[in-house]
Structure formats: C-alpha cells, structure tokens
UniProtKB/TrEMBL annotation:
Lineage: Bacteria, Pseudomonadati, Pseudomonadota, Gammaproteobacteria, Vibrionales
Family, similarity comment: Belongs to the MaoP family.
Domain of life per record: Bacteria
Organism, as annotated: Vibrio astriarenae
Protein name stated in the entry: Macrodomain Ori protein
Amino acid sequence: MSETHFRYGRKRFYDNIKFPRGFAKSGDFTLAEEELLIQFGDTMLALELGELTPDNSEEKHFMKVLANPLKAKSKLERTWLKYTQLARGRKRFHTLNGSRRGSVVDTSDEFDAVLEDE
C-alpha cells in the first residue's frame, strides 16, 4: 500500500448504507481491501464524480479503468470495482428451490371440471 502514488482521501471513506458494519465485517472484503477503501475511497469517489481531476499517471489510469473495467491492474482499482459492483449492482438472491417458477400448482381447471360434472 505504501508504494501507491494515489492521493489519500480528505476524510476516511465509509458506506453506512450498504455496509453498515464495515467493509470487512460484511464478509465481502478482506482487511487489506477494507483499509484501501477507507484510505483512498474518498479520492476515488471524487474522481469518479468529477469533483477532482487526476494529478498523476496512476489516477489517470484509474479514470480509464472506470470507463473500461477490464484494464484494472492494481489492487486499488480492482478493490474499487468490487466495491461499486457490490454497492451499486443488483443483489443476488439464492433460493433453495432449483426452478425459477414457484411450486404452487394451479388446480383451478381440475376444480372447474369437477363442478361441471355435478
């Protein structure tokens, strides 16, 4: 982390809405990723929103990564992409049922047939 030329954030970065207990306690981030987000997240968000302009080559590359995520090469860039996917992407919901359709059986046709016979 010390070899980065990325600017530290003006303040520590937290997302109390999507990760109210912290990034690492969510189970989605490692302790190292949490530290990267806390230290540099404010700067990365400001760059993404256009509130800051890139000062060095690393920040300019980060801007390119935002446009094309496949160009991510540093741990910082990959961590930010992971954060944005988890915070802004659709939440996956896993069920115990393997089919997409519900297991409710429609018996209204059978019931109508029984009523017509009577």
